[in-house]
Amino acid sequence: MAETTTRKAPVEVVVGILMKEDGDVLLGQRPDGKPYAGYWEFPGGKVEPGESLFEALRRELIEELGVEILDGEPWCCVEHVYPHAHVRLHFFICRQWRGEPQSLEGQAFAWQGHVAVEPLLPATIPLIEWLNRLRWKTDQV
């Protein structure tokens, strides 16, 4: 008899990379009480049942930062297995939004040119080099 394994589907998560005209991007620090508290990440969160990815992204950025995104260009999708969750991360580049980011969940946040905050959430680390190439249209980082 063939052995079957039950594997949970990954949790669908949207991630917004708010990018200014000069290429600076917004990172937030995970608040106390969440897994990986103190780690830096791009803002976003779980997709609720019945939501499109873009609808979830709009909702999450309003809830988390008080900004309404006006555009979101799908950028990449990455799966990552953390000790507490298996996630599928849908990244969007957002260049236009309404409002100024606020700390609505008690998190620190920082605009970054060359990303210098640490520690970064593990799923974010491999994407920084790709993002730098996109931001500055170069093969060198």
Describe the fold and architecture:
18% of the residues lie in helices and 31% in strands. It is of the alpha+beta class. It has a single domain (11-136), classed as Nucleoside Triphosphate Pyrophosphohydrolase. The strands form three sheets. It has a four-stranded mixed beta sheet with strand order 4-1-7-6, with helices on one face. Strand 6 and strand 7 (86-94) form a beta hairpin. The longest helix is centred in the middle third of the chain and has 13 residues, at 53-65. It starts with 10 loop residues before the first strand and ends in a 5-residue tail after the last helix. The model is unreliable at 1-5 (pLDDT under 50).
Which short descriptors sum up this protein?
alpha+beta; 141 residues; single chain; 8-oxo-dGTP diphosphatase; 3-stranded antiparallel sheet
Please outline what is shown here.
It comes from Noviherbaspirillum aridicola. With about 140 residues, this protein is an alpha+beta fold.
Task: Report the CATH superfamily.
Answer: Nucleoside Triphosphate Pyrophosphohydrolase
Order of helices and strands: EEEEHEEEEEH
Q: How many separate domains? A: 1
Low-confidence stretches: 1-5
Radius of gyration, CA atoms, in whole angstroms: 16 Å
Approximately what portion of the residues adopt beta-strand conformation? Answer: 25-35%
Q: Which structural class do you get from the secondary structure elements?
A: alpha+beta
Question: Largest sheet, described in full?
Answer: 4 strands, mixed
| Net shape | globular
Give the tally of β-strands: 9
Return the average pLDDT rounded to an integer.
Answer: 91
Trace the largest sheet across and list its strands. 4-1-7-6
Spatial gap, N to C terminus: 52 Å
Question: What name does CATH use for the topology?
Answer: Nucleoside Triphosphate Pyrophosphohydrolase
CATH architectural category? Alpha-Beta Complex
Number of helices: 2
